[in-house]
Amino acid sequence: RQPLSPCVAGERLCSTEEATAGSGTYTRHGFIFSSLAGCLERRNEDSELPVVSVVRDSESQLLPNVGAVVTCKVCSINSRFAKVHILYVGSTPLKSTFRGTIRREDIRATEKDKVEVYKSFRPSDIVLAKVISLGDAQSNYLLSTAENELGVVVARSEAGVQMVPISWCEMQCPRTHTKEFRKVARVQPQFLQM
Amino acid sequence: MAAERGTAAEALVGQVVLPGDLLLLPAHYDEDAEGERLRLSAGAAPQGRLLCGPGLRRSGAGLLVTKCGLLRHRPAGGGAYWVDSQQKRYVPVKGDHVIGIVTVKAGDVFRLDVGGSEPASLSYLAFEGATKRNRPNVQVGDLIYGQFVVANKDMEPEMVCIDSSGKSSGMGIIGQDGFLFKVSLGLIRKLLAPKCEIIQELSQLYPFELVLGMNGRIWVKAKTVQQTLIIVNILEACEYMTAEQRKQALAKLSGN
C-alpha cells in the first residue's frame, strides 16, 4: 500500500484510465474526483487497475443498502403506515438512528388489504425489517416485513411485561395472560441465545 | 412486588380501593408465604369464568387495582369484579356513541372535538347516503352524534355516522337549536340504563328531545327556551340529588 495523503472534497485525483473509482469518490468527464475530505488510499489489484478510494479517520457510517435486514423500533403508528427508528444494520449498531416507514401493504405478504396496522405493530416494539427502498431526499427509508422471518421480535404488553409469542399473529403476556395481536417474526434458531 | 400480600377480594367489596392494591381470589388463600409451589389451577380462573371488569387487571395470582373507587361484585355467572369510579375525563373506546363538535373541515375529513386527548376524524363518506357527488352539509361548529370505529391509545380516533349495515340508526348531524352541556360519565351511564327513572319522570313534565353522548355531553331540546333550561338544570342537579329530592323538585315544577 502507498502512504496515505490527505485530500479534500472535489479534488481531482486521477483519470479513469489509470485507476478505478472506489468508495468516497465519483467519476466525471473521464476523471476521478474525491467526494469526501479524508485520506487518499490506492490499493493495487493484480488483474485490474488499482482502486482509488478516500477514507476518513473515523469509521465510516454503515448505511443500510437495499435488501439489508435492519432492526428498528416503532415510534408511531397510523392507519396507513408505521414510523420506525432504525437502530441496527445487520448486527452493527448505528451511531445515529435513521428513520424508516413500513407501509400497510408491506407488512404482510398475503391478504394485504385486510391488514390492520394496530394488530401488527405498536409503539416501542422492536421489529426486524428489510430495506426495500432508500427513498428520495425528503422521505425515509422504506421497509418491509413481508416474510416469515421478519416482524416483531420484542414487544411489551399493556401491563409493561415482555410478551411471549404464541403464533405468527399473537403474543401473550405472562403476568396478565392477555393475548395481543402482532405480526411476529419467526427468528432463525441460530440467532436465539438459550 | 411478589412479597406484598394482598387482601381477600370478598372482604373489600363495597369499600374504597386504591391503585396498586392486590386482591386475592378465593382459590389462593392458603398459598405458601414464598408462593413457590405451583398449583395446577394457578393462573386459571378459580370457579367457572371470573370476569375482570373495568379498573382491574389480572396480575399473577390475583387482581391488581388500577383505578380508585368502590369495589363491586356480581356473583352471577361465575362472578365478576369491577371498580366503580367517578370520572369526568372521557377516554375514547371503540363502539361508544358520542357527541362531537366539528372544529376543522380539511378536504375529505372533518376533525371533531370529543373531549378526549386527540380530535377524532370523520370522513365525509361516513354518512348514510353520502357519495362523492352528494356530500353531507356539515359546517364548523355543528354537533354530530356518531360512534367510534377506531379508538385506542396509540392512534387518532376515527368516527362514523353509520352502523355496520350502512344505516344511520339515529346518528348524524344534530339539528339546530337545543342546548349542549357536560356532565360526569357516571351520570350518563345511569341515564342510559334501561327504564331510567329520571328520564321517565322528566318525560311526564314536558316533551323534549334528548341525545346522550358517552363522552359526558348531553343535548336537550324542548318547545321553549325556558323549558329547555329547566330540563338542563334538573339533569345537572340529578348527579347530587337523591330520588326524593328529585321528586319534590319535579312536583314543584309541574304544579307551577
From TrEMBL, chain A:
- GO cellular component terms given for this protein: cytoplasm; nuclear exosome (RNase complex); nucleolus
Recorded hits in Gene3D superfamilies, A to Z, give: 2.40.50.100, Nucleic acid-binding proteins
Q: Name one GO biological process term.
A: rRNA processing
GO MF annotations in UniProt: RNA binding
Its keywords, alphabetically, are: Cytoplasm, Exosome, Nucleus, Phosphoprotein, RNA-binding, rRNA processing
From what superkingdom does this record's organism come? Eukaryota
Q: Where in the cell is it found?
A: Cytoplasm; Nucleus, Nucleolus
Question: Which InterPro entries does the record match to this protein?
Answer: Csl4, EXOSC1_C, Exosome_cplx_N_dom, NA-bd_OB-fold, S1_domain
Q: Which PANTHER family match?
A: 3'-5' EXORIBONUCLEASE CSL4-RELATED, EXOSOME COMPLEX COMPONENT CSL4
The subunit structure is: Component of the RNA exosome core complex (Exo-9), composed of EXOSC1, EXOSC2, EXOSC3, EXOSC4, EXOSC5, EXOSC6, EXOSC7, EXOSC8 and EXOSC9; within the complex interacts with EXOSC6. The catalytically inactive RNA exosome core complex (Exo-9) associates with the catalytic subunit EXOSC10/RRP6. Exo-9 may associate with DIS3 to form the nucleolar exosome complex, or DIS3L to form the cytoplasmic exosome complex. Exo-9 is formed by a hexameric base ring consisting of the heterodimers EXOSC4-EXOSC9, EXOSC5-EXOSC8 and EXOSC6-EXOSC7, and a cap ring consisting of EXOSC1, EXOSC2 and EXOSC3.
- Name the record gives this protein: Exosome complex component CSL4
Which organism does this sequence originate in?
Ptilorrhoa leucosticta
UniProtKB/TrEMBL annotation, chain B:
Domain of life here?
A: Eukaryota
> Ribonucleoprotein as a keyword?
no
Q: Where is the Exosome complex component RRP40 N-terminal domain?
A: 15-86
* A biological process from GO: exonucleolytic trimming to generate mature 3'-end of 5.8S rRNA from tricistronic rRNA transcript (SSU-rRNA, 5.8S rRNA, LSU-rRNA)
Q: Which Pfam families match?
A: KH_6 (PF15985), RRP40_N_mamm (PF21261), RRP40_S1 (PF21262)
- Coiled-coil residue spans: none
Localisation per UniProt entry: Cytoplasm; Nucleus, Nucleolus
Q: Which residues form the K Homology domain?
A: 178-226
Main location class: cytoplasm
Quaternary arrangement and interactors, per the entry? Component of the RNA exosome core complex (Exo-9), composed of EXOSC1, EXOSC2, EXOSC3, EXOSC4, EXOSC5, EXOSC6, EXOSC7, EXOSC8 and EXOSC9; within the complex interacts with EXOSC5 and EXOSC9. The catalytically inactive RNA exosome core complex (Exo-9) associates with the catalytic subunit EXOSC10/RRP6. Exo-9 may associate with DIS3 to form the nucleolar exosome complex, or DIS3L to form the cytoplasmic exosome complex. Exo-9 is formed by a hexameric base ring consisting of the heterodimers EXOSC4-EXOSC9, EXOSC5-EXOSC8 and EXOSC6-EXOSC7, and a cap ring consisting of EXOSC1, EXOSC2 and EXOSC3.
**Name of the molecule in the record:** Exosome complex component RRP40
Q: What organism is this sequence from?
A: Poecile atricapillus (Black-capped chickadee)
